[in-house]
Each structure stands twice: as structure tokens, then as C-alpha cells.
Amino acid sequence: MTIHHERDLRRIARGLDQESRMREHIGRLLEEGHPITRETARLIAACIHSGDGSALERFAASDQLDTAAALAELTSIRVPSYQTGWVIALWTFLEVESDVEPLGALQTAPAAQEGW
User: Fold this and answer.
1) 3-state DSSP call for residue 94?
2) Domain limits at 68?
């Protein structure tokens, strides 16, 4: 990515600041043991969905939730270790939306493989 203008730097800084705030917000909720809200669930879905048109992407973008498809997607995605708690919180939120079996094993991507 080539940065051409100071405006690009400000946009990048805002994006990093928003991501940092989001991590802090979700981390605080999880540490305090609070259930996540629908808005927070959508925020998590926006960060971890498996691609355009996926159930989590649709939920994040339009608030249209196909719970069964979202749960199926959660079982197949790989996330960096810092997002494992997010997946658990989202799964718990989705369990409240419907009767499902408890969460199985998560796939955590190795940090070096994901670039962290």
C-alpha cells in the first residue's frame, strides 16, 4: 500500500484507533462476564466472518441473522488467538437466539501463520 497524502495517514490512524477501541470494549465485556449485545455480536461478526455473502457477513452488514448458518460458519473459521474469546462470546449470543448444542473445539490460527 502506497501512502500518497496526509489524509491517507489520518484514515489509517483512525482505523487503527477504532480497532483498538473495539478490542478494548469486547475484552472488557468478556473480562467482566457480561453477555454481549446484538450490536457487539454484529461487530464481532464483521471482524471474523469468512467472506462476502457469508452468514456472519450478512448479519454484520444487515442485521439479518440465519443462526444455523452463522453457527456452522463459526465452526469452520480460523481466528488468531486474541479473537478466541470473541468467537465464544458470539457463539453464546447465538445460543440464546436459538436452541443449539454447546460450543465444540475452536481452531486457533498460529500467530506466525497469521502475521501477528
Assistant:
1) helix
2) 36-114
